[in-house]
UniProtKB/TrEMBL annotation:
Enzyme Commission number, as recorded: 6.3.4.20
Pathway assignment: Purine metabolism; 7-cyano-7-deazaguanine biosynthesis
UniProt cross-references to Gene3D superfamilies, sorted A to Z: HUPs
Chain positions recorded as Zn(2+) binding sites: C190, C198, C201, C204
Protein name: 7-cyano-7-deazaguanine synthase
UniProt xrefs under InterPro entries: QueC, Rossmann-like_a/b/a_fold
Originating species: Halococcoides cellulosivorans
Keyword Metal-binding assigned: yes
Protein family: Belongs to the QueC family.
PANTHER family associated with the record: 7-CYANO-7-DEAZAGUANINE SYNTHASE (PTHR42914:SF1)
Length: 231
């Protein structure tokens, strides 16, 4: 390989966009990987991911349909009969937005994509506030999946699974992203709406709180902008 290549999982949101810039800052040529799994805001997320790929002049942008995750169900992101809950930033319970074992499915496909394109890394933007509620965002999960990659790929294949923010808060990610000039106006996080963002679901709340903590205006439009930082 003439240069380092990395597959980066991109959801259209701020964490994965920051992971793209982090990978590039570490010298990787970016291959962006996006999936549709029946989430309510999929069209917006996909467009944001595609525009980000154009913005960074990605080596490739791969979109794959994974609607079987919606067919399996039990997540408020994919099942219209389950309401997306308002944010509870103090809860340690697994939220209704959890898509069962989603990251294992996505990382398996990303690894296939990486091996096929001689990429030496797969990046995912999961962070500490994710793994407090989502079991497939825990550091132990990523350590275990690294063993799966090592065992299940060709002997000459070496792919490192990198979760650069796994011990970081959302605030840390926002601060790092602003430092790297990540175009957050091109990203989308809301679980409920395509435009404007609701401002009250978990994804909106954690995002707004992060920007409020670093005293930077979140550049996307919101229906509501509650204060998530104590005065």
């Amino acid at each position: 390989m003439d240069s380092k290549r990395a597959v980066i999982l991109v959801s259209g949101g701020m964490d994965s966009a920051t992971a793209v810039y982090e990978a590039m800052d570490r010298g990787y040529e970016p291959y962006l990987f996006h999936t549709s799994y029946g989430q309510q805001t999929e069209s917006t997320e996909r467009e944001c991911a595609k525009v980000l790929a154009e913005e960074v002049d990605a080596a490739d942008f791969l979109h794959i349909e994974t609607e079987y995750l919606a067919t399996i169900g039990t997540s408020s992101l994919t099942d219209d009969s389950i309401d997306v809950e308002d944010a509870d930033l103090e809860s340690d319970e697994i939220p209704t937005s959890y898509v069962p074992f989603r990251n294992a499915n996505l990382l398996a496909m990303a690894t296939s994509y990486a091996e096929a394109n001689d990429c030496s890394a797969v990046f995912i933007g999961a962070h500490s506030e994710d793994f407090s509620g989502y079991p497939d965002c825990r550091p132990a999960f990523f350590d275990a999946f690294q063993s799966v990659i090592d065992t299940g790929t060709k002997p000459e294949t070496e792919i490192e699974l990198i979760a650069p923010f796994v011990e970081w808060s959302k605030t840390d990610i926002a601060e790092r992203g602003v430092e790297m000039d990540v175009p957050y106006e091109l990203t989308w996080s809301c679980y409920r709406e395509s435009s404007p963002a609701c401002g009250t679901c978990d994804a909106c709340a954690f995002r707004l709180q992060a920007f409020q903590r670093i005293d930077v205006n979140d550049p996307i439009e919101y229906e509501q902008r509650p204060e998530y930082v104590d005065e």
